[in-house]
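Field guide to reading this record: the first block holds the primary sequence, the second block holds the structure written as discrete tokens, and the final block holds curator observations. Each block starts with its own label. This record concerns Aspartyl/glutamyl-tRNA(Asn/Gln) amidotransferase subunit B, catalogued under organism Eubacterium ramulus ATCC 29099.

BLOCK 1 — SEQUENCE
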Amino acid sequence: MSKNYETVIGLEVHVELATKTKIFCSCSTEFGGKPNTHTCPVCTGMPGSLPVLNKQVVEYAMAVGLATNCSITRYSKFDRKNYFYPDNPQNYQISQLYLPICRNGYVEIETPAGKKQVRIHEIHMEEDAGKLVHDEWEDVSIVDYNRSGVPLIEIVSEPDMRSADEVIAYLETLRQTIQYLGASDCKLNEGSMRADVNLSVREVGSPKFGTRTEMKNLNSFKAIAHAIEGERERQIELLEMGRKVVQETRRWDDNKESSHAMRSKEDAQDYRYFPEPDLAPIVISEEWINEIRSRQPELRPQKLERYRREYDIPEYDAQIITGTKHMADLFEETTKICSKPKKVSNWLMGETMRLLKENGMEAEEICFAPEHLAALIELVDAGTINGSVAKEVFEEMFRSDIDPEKYVEEKGLKVVNDEGALRETIEKVIADNPQSVEDYHNGKKKAMGFLVGQTMKAMKGKANPAMVNAILQELLA
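BLOCK 2 — STRUCTURE
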């Protein structure tokens, strides 16, 4: 009889910080750029070059630490992690092993069983390595050092997660928190947030952890969920066959939806850490911590709480809108202008979400200004344009942030409230559709909808729907 197994998961999450320059030099951190153009002697590891610590990196790390309930290490320092790899120009990485900047925190996630705390063991600062590009045609690997020296924080969790769903909830919470802080854009597709998954299985009720494997190369939430399910099944299968799980690093292949071993524990590197001699320790005062604390923005949990108090919008809408800082800011600024939270929410939840999905875009890419959304809502409320015209104007606004008032004026989209012109059009529609008129008199309510549609079509969508209905009913009676 097969046994019941429990999955035990811990994560190491690397986050690229949103500084303009690298951690130890003044080279640009901008994503993209021609290979090896954002480089200098420091980030390419030239002999005799000396690192100088970027203060903003320390402040971002402290901000993330405070937001994830960590204690800040008052006396923190850097260490050299020695390893030899072509993307690592100095043959060591400057990181933090012994005295990381943040320790012993937690984040709260929502699970089907309720709220759960996932503990954070530590957060440390380090520099990123360069990027190896494998050219299969030429059968060579080439190195781009643009990313070398980009500042990272590594957030190391305790093994507190038990399923792919909990892992995704934890990552979503981290991503939202860090985006709200402005510490990183956390774009998985650009590598500014990367997760390594440490996973083991054990029999339910067993106090001992099983042998864990580490999975790398996970650059989307979908890949992470698939990798967890795949590795869990692989380990259970081995145990059911009476074989042992080998402690190793595995690489996930998203195309094949399977993982393969990269290196086992037996040949894993001993990094031979020692204190970084070129950087002084960081002494963090209580005043500095308080200054960072005073600058912390309102994070998502507090925002949700405030939305419940201040705005009459459904809980589901509030959850989606606060999911990204950009959407929440857009909602609040538009509401401040027009004082109509429910209508702002409807536009964001309806047309905005639809167009984001159709165009494969993220909420951060929304370009229209809050002033323009507020103006569109006012145009509809004043009866200047009707619902269908409003959707047409909104699509244009979504694409290129046009001023809706000017656009409506230029395109002649204002609602026709001229009763004489409407009556004339409706009389013609009635004359042209005797069958529908007969159907209406025979009690078929759909016929009315058809006649309204024909009128709107004749008026190029610019008729006042209430007037159309009223005149139609009068003439048909």
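BLOCK 3 — OBSERVATIONS
The mean pLDDT is 90.
The CA atoms of residues 63 and 295 lie 9 Å apart.
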